[in-house]
Amino acid sequence: MFEATSETIGAWSFHDHVRNVQRNVNRGLFGGLIIRDPSAPCANHEIPIFIHQMQASAKGYFFRSGELRPMDSYEVKPSEAIFDHPGVCNYYCAIHGTSMSGRIDIAPADANPTQIHIVTINNLSFGAPIAIRVGDTVRWENKDAVNHIVFSPGGGKSTFCLNGRGYVGNTPTIVGDTGERLCWYVFNLDIASMWHNFHPHSVRWQLPVPPGGASDVHALSPVETFVTDTLVPPAMRLHLARWKRCNATRRWTRAACGSEAIFFFTAMSKNT
Ligand SMILES: [Cu+2]
Q1: pTM exceeds 0.70 for this model
Q2: Cα(41) to centroid of ligand 1, in Å?
Q3: Between 219 and 249, the higher pLDDT residue
Q4: What is d(CA 79, CA 136) in angstroms, rounded to the nearest whole number?
Q5: How far is ligand 1, taken at its centre, from the CA of residue 253, in Å?
Q6: Which of 91, 147, 170, 173 measures 20 to 30 Å from 110, CA to CA?
Q7: C-alpha of 111 from chain center
């Protein structure tokens, strides 16, 4: 039970905290709780933004180790018929999430003897991608001081998302008139080790300390939140939709400025 008292004014992240955390995130088992400040000025637009990663599940190279304690190891052998076809296997740690991910490139079998490939787990990392052939064995050795679970759901590589959506044109667009007040509730819902910066490129906000101080960037640790108000600025920000191309000269010219401001704040894939 969560009691919304004056001491809890702000934004709070929640997520599953047991097992298969990333799989449960993909199912939507995470979110934010906002406790409004009744004495705060009314905003024209309230903007909850979740910054996080998702990884699709699909049929492919599926495997999952047990919980590997320090110095434990885990092997995927040919007899398990997992790396039995060429392709790319993206996997991650089921405890630490997709920020701790690895990759195996699987080539067809050839006349050379089969090999055992060692992946050393260290500093919350699986290290560089490895290349194997069908028929090879992969062995993970946990040299970290913490437990890990090597997990391949058979899907693609993880994608950075805003509110469950990735890529420009798909992520949320915030449109406001000049002078309107925006109340941002920013949540870093990356629950592994990924930090994100909130940096909307067109506004700044007052800091509580030092007096008179201001900032236009705020770093968010995993599961940290940030609440701030900004005003939609009077200046026009560059945007391709405001440029026109002359068919004769093939040159771009800037169209007349409007009074609206355009924020550009989006998420990109790690694949690029
Ligand atoms: Cu881990």
Answers
A1: no
A2: 43
A3: 219
A4: 10
A5: 51
A6: 91
A7: 41
The pLDDT of 114-143, averaged and rounded, is 96
Lowest mean pLDDT: which of 27-41, 98-112, 147-161, 231-245? 231-245
What's the gap in Å between 195 CA and the centre of ligand 1?
17
Average pLDDT of the residues of the chain: 83
Whether 56 shows a pLDDT value over 70: the answer reads: no
Which candidate, 215, 176, 199, places its Cα nearest to that of 43?
176
Residues 6 or more apart whose Cβ sits within 8 Å of residue 129: 102, 103, 104, 105
- The domains of the chain are located at 6-52+161-271, 62-156
Cα-Cα-Cα-Cα dihedral sign, residues 72, 78, 81, 86: positive
Give backbone dihedrals phi and psi of 21, rounded to 5 degrees, phi first. Answer: -60, -45
CATH 3.40.50 describes domain 6-52+161-271: no
